[in-house]
Amino acid sequence: EVQLVESGGGLVQPGGSLRLSCATSGFAFRYSPMSWVRQAPGKGLEWVSDINSGSSSTSYADSVKGRFTISRDNAKNTLYLQMYSLKPEDTAVYYCAKGSRGTYSARGQGTQVTVSS
Known about the structure:
By secondary structure, the protein is mainly beta. It has strands at about 5, 10, 20-25, 35-40, 45-50, 60, 70-75, 80-85, 90-100, 105, 110-115. The protein contains no helices and eleven strands.
């Protein structure tokens, strides 16, 4: 059974930082591209970033480019999202997803990120 478990969310002030983690199991993580997506209150799912299996290629939505960094540790079957310079508009539930942009086959339960003073 594919399992994706996000953690690391919370309440942070504008300009602050957070690091999200996604622990995975039940599939060959080291061979799978992975993504982060988010859903803000009242809005649809938004792709944030993806990374290929070997970490040689990453992509970012324009809204987070230069502020967020996606990474992975294939030895630990874990995906990360380092977020800097957070803005109120980054407030959302963040999900990790198995697959690259638009090709997700599984998604975790999400972790809430709230950016507010």
